[in-house]
Amino acid sequence: MGMDLVEIVVRTEDAFGIQISDVEATQITTTRELADFVATKVPLSDEPSCLSQHSFYFLRERFGRHLSFSRRSFYPNALLEDFVPEENRKFIWATLRAEVGANALPDLARPVWLFWTLAAATVFVFFYATIFLWSILGLFWAFWFGLTATIAFGYLSAVITRPMKQNFRYYLQSLSQVARYLVANKPHVFKRDERTWTRAQILAVVREIITDESGIKDFDNDAHFIKDLHLG
């Protein structure tokens, strides 16, 4: 089983609170088969319900406990930054994360330019330290010293730039994206009072996980993971 499929299986286990053995995982070849398998592991309900809509209403209710806004302004395509402005964003976002559920939403991120600057600087530190010490210590020890210096630099730069984590993740720009993120990653936070799943809800979560992992948005539920979607 390829690593993409392994990650999909692991995330499916986490989303539904189930276990999928290695033998079972290798026998699942399509989205429909994965959803059907999950359906054998969780309590089912025939009551129709839209999971994305459920997630969105959950967010509106939880955000409304700490933010002041009209119901009309809280719509799917509304930008997250309109509700969590840059001023006091770290405090507000931490409060909302705690309200939604422990680790249900990701932390804020550093600006893109800073991320790539640190990445480039880290690579420079490794190569500079290794090449500088090569003639003195030899390749083996120069390599390990360069690796140690790189780890130390990466840790220190992460600590120093932590106050600059003010940006939302690129995949969490609108309220609909936040709702879909919960569907794909932490559906239990808004279904904590419900113990049953509909087959449509299961399929929706499985599709969101596959889309999030593969980047493929339009695919048939019976498409083969390897032959058609090229997941490996």
Structure description:
The structure is a single chain. The protein has 232 residues and is mainly α. It has helices at residues 3-16, 22-27, 31-39, 51-64, 89-100, 112-137, 139-160, 175-185, 199-214. The protein is built from 9 helices and no strands. α4 packs across α8.
Label the structural class: mainly alpha
Dominant shape: flat
Total E-strand runs: 0
β content, as a range? Answer: under 5%
H and E order: HHHHHHHHH
Secondary structure blueprint with pairings:
Layout: H1 3-16, H2 22-27, H3 31-39, H4 51-64, H5 89-100, H6 112-137, H7 139-160, H8 175-185, H9 199-214
Helix pairs in contact: 1-9, 3-9, 4-8, 6-7, 8-9
What's this, in brief?
This protein is mainly α and 232 residues long.
Features:
single chain, mainly alpha, 232 residues, 9 helices
